[in-house]
Each structure stands twice: as C-alpha cells, then as structure tokens.
C-alpha cells in the first residue's frame, strides 16, 4: 500500500474513532482561577474543547525519549519536515493523526497547540491519537503541537519530565 494511501487511511480511522469515542476528558479540580479557560463548541458534533486550562511551561526545552509524528493528507512531520495542508473558508475543523513513540505510559501527556492547552492523552496500549484542529489552529502559518509530561501529572507545579513537538503549516486555497 502506498505511503499516501496509508496516511489517508490512518487519518480516516482517527476521525472515525474520535467521532465514536469522543473526548475522554475527566472531571478536573477547578481551583485554577488564575488561568483562562476557553470553551469552543463544534456545532457539527457538540464536542467541547477545554482550551487554555493549563499554562504552557516557561523556558521548556525538548527532553525525554517521547517523539511525535504528525500525519496529514499532505504528508508527515517525519525527519523534521513540516507538512503543509490547505484550507478554505468552509473548513471549520480538520482532523490530523499523530503517532506517539516512547512516552511513559504511566503518565498523562498534556497536548498543546501553539502553547494553548487542548487535552490530555495517555499512551498505555496505543501509540496513536488525533486532534481536531479548529479556530486559530487553522489560520494560515506554521503551528506547533507539543506533548508534555509532568512529575505526578501536575501541569501547574510538576517539573517537566518529557517534552517534544512537531510542526504543521496551513495555507489558504486559492479559489478561481
């Protein structure tokens, strides 16, 4: 099977899984009055994202053995590449796949896009996930997806134990 077909199939599978399973956000302690939380609702599937719930750590550098690879219809982020995909005014949400390797399965991985918290992930029995990009995540330009693990799963006071990132780029489609 060709590489493009595999990536396209993975993206489709991730989209179906997210649609069926939904977000696995758990109830969290709400003593975070100093941090802004933005609830974004996708009208198509009533899914809510808790964006900005946790701050992005200051002066963090890549560390740990965890690695992520972004999969888009336009390619992957393998070998430091930045896959580019095109959007138009009708695109409200685009699903991209992510392979995660060598993360500590006993800890949550906190997912950030452009330094804004999106949701937690945990890689125990699986090594892949997907993210529904929407809003500012689909603006033209280069964007960064970061996976961060903290001591004791504490993104407020815990020390960063693993940090890795990958980039994707968004461009506007020309309508003629």
UniProtKB/TrEMBL annotation:
What's the name of the protein?
Lipoprotein
Which taxonomic lineage does the organism of this UniProt entry have?
Answer: Bacteria, Bacillati, Bacillota, Bacilli, Bacillales
């Amino acid at each position: 099977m060709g590489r493009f077909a595999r990536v396209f199939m993975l993206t489709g599978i991730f989209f179906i899984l997210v649609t069926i399973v939904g977000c696995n956000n758990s109830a969290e302690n709400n003593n975070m009055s100093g941090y802004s939380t933005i609830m974004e609702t996708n009208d198509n599937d009533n899914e809510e994202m808790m964006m900005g719930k946790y701050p992005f750590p200051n002066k963090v550098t890549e560390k740990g053995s965890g690695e992520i690879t972004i999969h888009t219809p336009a390619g992957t982020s393998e070998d430091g590449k930045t896959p580019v995909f095109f959007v138009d005014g009708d695109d409200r949400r685009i699903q991209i796949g992510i392979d995660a390797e060598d993360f500590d399965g006993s800890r949550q991985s906190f997912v950030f896009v452009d330094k804004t918290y999106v949701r937690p992930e945990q890689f125990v029995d699986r090594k892949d996930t997907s993210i529904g990009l929407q809003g500012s995540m689909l603006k033209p330009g280069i964007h960064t997806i970061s996976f961060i693990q903290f001591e004791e799963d504490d993104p407020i006071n815990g020390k960063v134990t693993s940090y890795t990132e990958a980039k994707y780029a968004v461009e506007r489609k020309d309508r003629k």
